[in-house]
Design brief:
two-stranded antiparallel sheet, 4% strand, 225 residues, mainly alpha
């Protein structure tokens, strides 16, 4: 009986590993294809139109990779989506957060002038950074939060020029205000604090793979444009 139980456990582990490989392959493949599409002028318009669908695909991959999907995870995802969306709404309509900016058409359908995909993007970034730090050797929660916020702020430094170039959003200020990066850090820290308090069990490397893919994607585009 014990041997049968161990066999089932081994089979389940192999299945999970295979699923993780499939998820990581999808992440890397679609970022590579997207990179090519953004770099080839004749394909750029098509790939800009596909940006919201790409984010939805990454959302599906991350949700699929989560170990034992439950209501707690869904509450977390919705919480991050809503806080991110409200922060962006406040930023666009008041300028109090991030600075004065407006969203273009690249991120798709908007509600109150804010793309719905921006909430999805906040969830993906926070979850990916949270899991990455969860898997690190950093034992102190505050250190993990601070490190994660720094990582996401550095990612925003790479994202900003590309976002402007491809009509994700546009700044009404003269250049990108330093306030934007300060607010990115603070909002990231708040959302990572929330991640920490959900106390998720150790997750797979799928989310960290997404974070790395994002860094490579925007770093390469910064070298090209």
């Amino acid at each position: 009986m014990e041997r049968a139980k161990n066999l089932r456990s081994a089979i389940a582990h192999i299945a999970i590993s295979k699923n993780n490989r499939v998820c990581i392959t999808i992440i890397l493949l679609f970022h590579l294809v997207g990179l090519i599409g953004f770099m080839v002028p004749s394909l750029t318009v098509l790939f800009i139109a596909l940006v919201p669908w790409h984010l939805l695909l990454m959302l599906a991959v991350v949700v699929y990779s989560y170990d034992t999907l439950d209501g707690r995870f869904l509450v977390f995802a919705l919480t991050i989506f809503l806080i991110g969306f409200v922060a962006e709404y406040t930023g666009v309509h008041t300028g109090w957060i991030f600075g004065h900016y407006r969203y273009g058409e690249t991120l798709g359908t908007k509600l109150f002038e804010i793309p719905l995909m921006i909430g999805v993007n906040w969830f993906l970034l926070i979850y990916a950074a949270g899991v990455t730090l969860q898997r690190s050797r950093l034992k102190n929660m505050l250190v993990r939060i601070f490190s994660g916020a720094i990582i996401l702020t550095l990612l925003d430094v790479l994202i900003e020029p590309i976002a402007i170039h491809f009509d994700y959003w546009h700044w009404l200020d003269a250049g990108i205000p330093f306030k934007n990066y300060v607010c990115w850090f603070l909002l990231s820290a708040l959302l990572l604090f929330i991640f920490e308090h959900f106390k998720f069990k150790r997750q797979s490397i799928v989310a960290p793979a997404l974070l790395i893919a994002q860094f490579v994607f925007f770093a390469v585009l910064n070298l090209v444009y």
